Amino acid sequence: MEVVRILHSMAGFAVTASIYAIFALGLNVHWGYTGLFNIGIAGFFAIGAYTSALVTSPQPTGVLAHYVKQAFGLNMPFLVGVTAAGLVSGLLAIPIGIPTLRLREDYLAIATIGIAETIRLIFNNERWLANGPQGMIGLAKPLGWLVPPNRYNFIYLAIVLAFLLIIYLALERGIRSPWGRVLRAVREDEVVTSAAGKNVFLFKMQSLVLGAVIMGIGGALYAHAIRAIQPGVFTPLFGTLIIWVMLILGGSGNNKGVILGAFIIWGIWSGTALLIDHIVPVTWSARAPYLRFLLIGLLLIGILLTRPQGLLGEEKQVSRMM
Amino acid sequence: MAELVGYGFVLGSIITLGAVGLTLIYGIVNFGNFSHGDLMTLGAYLALLLTARIFPALGISDRPLSPLSFGWVMLLSFIPAMAVTGLVALVADRLVYRPLRRLEVKPVFLAISSLAVALVLRSLVYILWGPDYHFLIHGLRPMLRLPLGVKLRPDQVFIIIIAWAMVAGLYLFLQRTKIGKALRAMADNPNLARITGIPTERMTILVWFIGGSMAAAGGILLGIDSQVRPTMGWALLLPLFAAIVLGGIGNPYGALVGGLVLGIVQQASTMWLLPSYKPAVAFLVLILILMFRPQGIFGGT
């Protein structure tokens, strides 16, 4: 029994790590392959999570309606929620891309921070939309009827891994296609790419939307894993920076690398949580979590300075025709 | 409305102090310093440390500066707080940004590393001072009635005076001294500056120190106006960037105008929106500028 319990909590770890791997794959489309500097992942993460929460949960009725406010509740199946999350997140990317993708790369960065903060503020302030700071709880549990709750992580892990695998395979295929080669050409030199007759803006927009769709799907998977979401989760650290560290550590421009990076960083993050709980005295418990933030920041600086290509580095990709 | 414009002027003066440094740094090292807001936070916490702990421990007693709600140790705290924050910015350059420049990575990598620096600074603030709010001032806050129906607290008048005195000082420095001219030349065109014999590395050190210490002053003034908390500077990052894009990146005079516009627009928006939406308003302004005049009103580098 004990073994199953340990395996179950390890599956819980793998669920979150795999979801972060999906975010990291989305960021890899943006930064790793196209050079789009997105530091507002938290925004796409939040919009995906909230979209799926609103689409899959029923509209509260009776006494509950007094305590839980939400704009709508469609009570649709999980897969509809995930699909909607990807679509809405992808659509959100378009108005961000239009004013910024023709300008130098930092402008996109500032705009993505802006959209992430704005989305968090909206969900925090507008209680009618998704219950404000309290957030939404008791989200749908796909295939939950199959097993008792203390075995559920195994089921959800299988679901998340299926998504991770599909996204990984699709990206590997896309990135090796002529389309993927144009993206990398845009990353290396926009002027040359446009001289070769490619519409750089359009390719950047496609990349921005595709990455955003992946991040939105990741957000939906996260919402149903935790089964409770509130605006406080989607902070710049938790929703954005940690994913950057995963990407840079694993190897920007290498899909296997960023998945590896996600598992390592999530391992460090969860491992140090346990460690700090044991070492740091109770009077410091309000401040202790920030030791881990400090560690993540130092780690990012360390990797950038010593191994900017990451653990795996970018793979050389040659067309199959050659 | 006149009241909101008055408050907007106060907020705008604070934003300006951050924005002039940010835009100079942007012009000279060619990347957006995402840790600039957290340098402001650090400055405010250093002033808190000085006024609440260090000065009393040194036996320096406070004397009130009526009608202001704080005493002269607050004024005294500006100098060490600004110096230390300037040094922190400089150390970040030596330890992080310069080694990266040496690796000849794209400027975007420097921007990413500045995010990491921001995270390190903010974590240190959380670890040393905890997540709670602190107050720099404890006195009552009477209102002054100024002409045109503007009502401001004496503290806020002080904020405006200090901020613009510093900006004027920076203006004279940039305009009248040889080093100042060299800095502007470098912000305008680093390569051209290098060929004319301007010591660019030394200019880089200088700009980090100036930018960091001006940011600290802005942070302290923000702390006097409201309260000191770990996310105070991060919340100003969007208005800072909107201000420098509005004024044209690398153009310190543009940043003055940009800072004031952002302060006034953000405060005026509270007529219709919750005050917590201020960063979102700054974002909206930024998007509008990027759509209609991405080079800023005065042009930039």
Supply database-style keywords.
heterodimer; A: 322 residues; mainly alpha; globular; B: 301 residues; two-stranded antiparallel ribbon; 71% helix
What can be said about the biggest beta sheet of chain A?
Answer: 2 strands, antiparallel
| Beta-strand content of chain A | under 5%
Summarize the helix and strand pattern of chain A as letters: HHHHHHEHHHHEHHH
Strand order of the largest sheet of chain B: 1-2
Mean pLDDT of chain B comes to 89
Continuous helix count of chain B = 11
Per DSSP, the total helix count of chain A is 13
- What structural class do the secondary elements of chain B suggest? mainly alpha
Structural class of chain A: mainly alpha
What is the strand tally of chain A?
Answer: 2
Number of strands of chain B: 2
Describe how the helices and strands are arranged.
The complex is a heterodimer of chains A (322) and B (301).
Chain A: H1 2-34, H2 41-56, H3 64-67, H4 78-100, H5 105-125, H6 127-130, E1 136-137, H7 152-176, H8 178-188, H9 190-195, H10 200-226, E2 228-229, H11 236-250, H12 255-279, H13 289-306
Antiparallel strand pairs in A: 1-2
Chain B: H1 2-29, H2 36-57, H3 72-102, H4 107-129, E1 144-145, E2 151-152, H5 154-176, H6 178-188, H7 190-195, H8 200-225, H9 237-247, H10 252-268, H11 278-292
Antiparallel strand pairs in B: 1-2
